[in-house]
Design brief:
about 0% strand, rod-shaped
Length: about 100
């Protein structure tokens, strides 16, 4: 046997309507909370990945700088004596005229 609503149409009690609205609102809020939690989890994963990438980038950059410094030091010319760099014995630069 099926239940039949015998109430007159449009005469739903205020309390029942309010309870229905509250339930619907709770369902919507729960959905929004779940979505926010999912987004926070995704952002946390992205931030962790970005942090790892940043650390890898900094490590590569430091390695590059070390290699550049090693090459710079490897091919440095020997220091020039004061007699060959254009200075006189007192350390002053010589003037060249044309």
């Amino acid at each position: 046997m099926q239940w039949i609503d015998t109430r007159p149409l449009g005469r739903v009690s205020f309390k029942e309507e309010q309870e229905r609205r509250v339930r619907q609102q709770q369902i919507r809020l729960k959905g929004k909370e779940d979505e926010l939690k999912r987004r926070r989890d995704e952002l946390g994963q992205r931030e962790a990945a970005l942090k790892i990438q940043e650390e890898q980038f900094q490590a590569r950059e430091a390695q590059f700088k070390r290699e550049a410094d090693e090459q710079k030091n490897r091919y440095k010319e020997p220091a020039q004596s004061s007699t060959t760099d254009g200075r006189n014995k007192k350390g002053k630069f010589l003037r060249f005229t044309q």
